[in-house]
């Protein structure tokens, strides 16, 4: 028994070690990924349930290292956050997103809006207000067409004047949404302190919407809550017609998901919103 224990200990130790090595090497590669132009920003359409038309898109970061396979954002974003590199990467993302949105508007979609994911770290250590305003200025995009998606944990923060930073940017016309709403520790009282326009209902609720009447009721309740607070709703992870029909029926404002499109590189996205350009 002693031998077995010793072996399993060694095995465990080795796995830990490999994980640590992988983390460090990924962090090192991430460091040069901007200079080497290895990032790409994809766009996923948001559909207006009332008109059936594309209202805007969420910008989603993709990393294609020169060597090796693509790395999923779920894997590299946390490393970028922990090392602080998300500040520089996030600056690139917001600039690129504004330029893309302006380009799409100029192709004949004057109301097109882009949504950008923002990490808490960017608010804490990033001269964030300046970066956002500069990205708008450089691109020529008007502030009402930029939306920043924040996760619920940010609204628990009391430091760094986050409510103030959001308030000042909102006063300039930029809008804010709560991402993955309902997934984390929703502190509704806390939410009230912030200038929020939209709740993005976490895709977990959407995937399981028809599993039980209670789950359906939950989605309806979130939409009802949003409406009574004067907030818009976006349902994420809409994968089939049945789900879309139900969401439309219960009054969700916008939908996003594979039913309409997965996230696309800019050229494919432009074809998606302007199919006529192809003919
Ligand atoms: P998120 O902000 O919640 O983004 C939604 C995720 O769901 C995206 O994954 C999207 O591709 C995926 N998705 C969209 N529609 C469907 C659907 O119908 N079904 C399913 N199963 N999935 C769907 P992605 O692109 O892998 O991004 C993962 C997460 O990485 C994002 O979650 C976001 O938290 C983070 N992320 C991505 N880009 C950025 C960025 O530029 N900055 C920051 N800070 N985080 C980012
Ligand atoms: Ca998001
Ligand atoms: Ca989300
Ligand atoms: Ca998320």
TrEMBL record:
<feature type="domain" description="EAL">
    <location>
        <begin position="23"/>
        <end position="277"/>
    </location>
</feature>
<protein>
    <submittedName>
        <fullName>Bifunctional diguanylate cyclase/phosphodiesterase</fullName>
    </submittedName>
</protein>
């Amino acid at each position: 028994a002693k031998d077995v224990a010793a072996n399993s200990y060694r095995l465990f130790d080795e796995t830990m070690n490999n994980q640590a090595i992988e983390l460090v090497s990924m962090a090192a590669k991430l460091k040069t990924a901007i200079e080497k132009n290895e990032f790409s920003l994809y766009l996923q359409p948001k559909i207006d349930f009332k008109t059936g038309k594309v209202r805007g898109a969420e910008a989603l970061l993709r990393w294609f290292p020169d060597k090796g396979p693509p790395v999923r954002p779920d894997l590299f974003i946390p490393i970028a956050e922990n090392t602080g590199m998300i500040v520089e990467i996030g600056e690139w993302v917001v600039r690129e997103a504004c330029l893309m949105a302006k380009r799409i508007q100029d192709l004949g979609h004057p109301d097109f809006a882009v949504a950008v994911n923002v990490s808490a770290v960017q608010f804490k250590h990033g001269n964030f207000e300046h970066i956002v305003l500069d990205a708008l200025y450089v691109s020529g995009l008007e502030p009402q067409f930029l939306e920043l998606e924040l996760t619920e944990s940010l609204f628990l923060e009391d430091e760094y004047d986050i409510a103030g930073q959001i308030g000042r940017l909102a006063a300039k016309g930029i809008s804010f949404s709560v991402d993955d709403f309902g997934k984390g520790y929703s502190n509704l009282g806390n939410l009230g302190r912030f200038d929020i326009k939209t709740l993005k209902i976490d895709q977990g609720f959407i995937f399981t919407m028809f599993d039980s009447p209670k789950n359906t009721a939950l989605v309806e309740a979130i939409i009802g809550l949003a409406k009574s607070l004067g907030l818009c709703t976006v349902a994420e992870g809409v994968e089939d017609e049945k789900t879309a029909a139900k969401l439309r029926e219960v009054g969700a404002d916008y939908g996003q998901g594979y039913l309409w499109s997965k996230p696309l590189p800019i050229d494919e996205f432009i074809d998606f919103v302007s199919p006529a350009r192809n003919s």
